């Protein structure tokens, strides 16, 4: 990695270094490059939006002014507002990753149902897909809408209900089209989890929670994937966090949950630095009116972090801003 060695950067690293021995770990920035501080901001402040959940996942910002949040322990999806107010949307066994489709329907990975579902505003749901070649999915984990309008999702065994049989003998990444057809894109990951597209739609990222790495693929016609290779590694101890949720900004930088917090990567695979969190994060989403705020689901809480540089004014994709953010 090429890192600029300026005096100001060295000073910033000293100021943002790890806390003293024995001190409780709290929010802090761990820069490895000046670019990290340019993106996040030296004076970035983490705010707690709401706490008291069981295990938070699947944040998805809605332009109406709230973020959808799954609670895998309480088994519900909530609307959580910036002031901390929460409203129950649906009671559902182990809801996980969420996105919006092109009709702005909330799409959820329903682990207990072993299905991809559409959730309605009145707390009902419709199963969009629960099988591949007649066999039940393992436990769909995370989902995004692609530039082509298809739903792309991962299907590890991480939340396979105890006692239930694994019917598909691998952990795949799939595309679900609007007709309901499910296409296998790749089966070369051991536990695929978070996923995202590059801003131009030409690269597809997916991380592997078991291998603790991020893979990148070239995207072809119909969402086909090729030339899979390792983009980056996020090593950690046995009880540390693993690569999970992924979000990408307009310049192609990746924000990926991992050990200690959120790892920030540039498009070339350089680890720029880490946003250390007070609780281990699982997922994140862009939000607020200008989509310059990261809403982060971390264990029992939902946090927000206003970043310094995040512009979506000149996207290369012909789509609306909310749909764009659901993709990335």
What does this structure look like?
Strands 1-24-23-22-21 form a five-stranded antiparallel β-sheet, with helices on one face. The protein has one domain: Neuraminidase (6 Propeller), CATH 2.120.10. The chain has three helices and 27 strands. The chain has helices spanning 7-15, 34-40, 321-327; strands spanning 28-31, 46-50, 56-62, 66-71, 76-80, 86-91, 95-100, 106-110, 115-119, 125-129, 131-132, 135-136, 143-145, 151-155, 172-176, 182-186, 192-197, 203-208, 213-219, 225-233, 246-248, 254-258, 261-265, 271-276, 281-287, 293-298, 301-306. The chain has 328 residues and is mainly beta.
Write the layout of secondary structure elements.
Blueprint: H1 7-15, E1 28-31, H2 34-40, E2 46-50, E3 56-62, E4 66-71, E5 76-80, E6 86-91, E7 95-100, E8 106-110, E9 115-119, E10 125-129, E11 131-132, E12 135-136, E13 143-145, E14 151-155, E15 172-176, E16 182-186, E17 192-197, E18 203-208, E19 213-219, E20 225-233, E21 246-248, E22 254-258, E23 261-265, E24 271-276, E25 281-287, E26 293-298, E27 301-306, H3 321-327
Antiparallel strand pairs: 1-24, 2-27, 3-4, 4-5, 5-6, 7-8, 8-9, 9-10, 11-12, 13-14, 14-15, 15-16, 17-18, 18-19, 19-20, 21-22, 22-23, 23-24, 25-26, 26-27
